[in-house]
Amino acid sequence: MGGFGVTFKAMFKKRLTEQYPEEKKPTAPRFHGRHQLNRHPDGLEKCIGCELCAWACPADAIYVEGADNTEEERYSPGERYGRVYQINYLRCILCGLCVEACPTRALTMTNEYELADRTRASLIFTKEELLAGLQDGMVDSPHAIYPGADEQTYYRGEVKAAAPGTERQVARSKGEQPPADEDDALAAASRLRDPNGDAGDSGSGVRA
Ligand code: SF4
Ligand code: SF4
Q1: Residue 85's pLDDT is what?
Q2: Dihedral of CA 135/128/50/178: which sign?
Q3: Which domains can be identified in the chain, with CATH numbers?
Q4: pLDDT digits (tens, 9 = 90+) for 35-86
Q5: Which ligand has an atom closest to residue 49 CA?
Q6: What contacts 72, CB < 8 A, 6 or more positions away?
Q7: Within 6 Å (CB) of ligand 2, which residues are found?
């Protein structure tokens, strides 16, 4: 009889059932969700490929490979950048220790919690998936450093946007092809250097 009393009381209480996924409730502001790799205000990446986040991770969920920036292909203001960056969400326990270890505030966590999927591979997030989107004033990496700036300037927050005229560099290390007009320019330059190169096509037919 006592048991029925509990049932009757519960019938008149406010329902706590959540209608997820039709209705999604906002999380607490500091909820630990999916990670994000942040950018400087001009679009260069904050990650320097130091691997401290990977060493701090208790679940061995992060894989990082750093590489050197060059003036022709620059991803971050300093010497190094994160060439490969992966987080395995099958292992991650969303503890946030990696965020604490990061010396450049490159790595933070968002409030996104929908991290289920049907395959293992799709839960290993790559750098391209983790890298923050572009905001106003940003140019996608790789591109040149702000003129006159150095990495200290960037970390003091003195670079507020990409310098006027900043253009994205061609990422040779990722196998991106040069734009078509660059191909045309190279072909024209090679014809100038070797005027006989196209003699057969031009139909001049004059041979010694
Ligand atoms: S949140 Fe914790 S478990 Fe997940 S990657 Fe960072 S350190 Fe590893
Ligand atoms: S996210 Fe931070 S700690 Fe991890 S490799 Fe990049 S700079 Fe280093």
Answers
A1: 98
A2: negative
A3: 27-169 (3.30.70.3270)
A4: 999 999 999 999 999 999 999 999 999 999 999 999 999 999 999 999 999 9
A5: 2
A6: 169, 172
A7: 47-53, 64, 82, 101-102, 104, 106-107
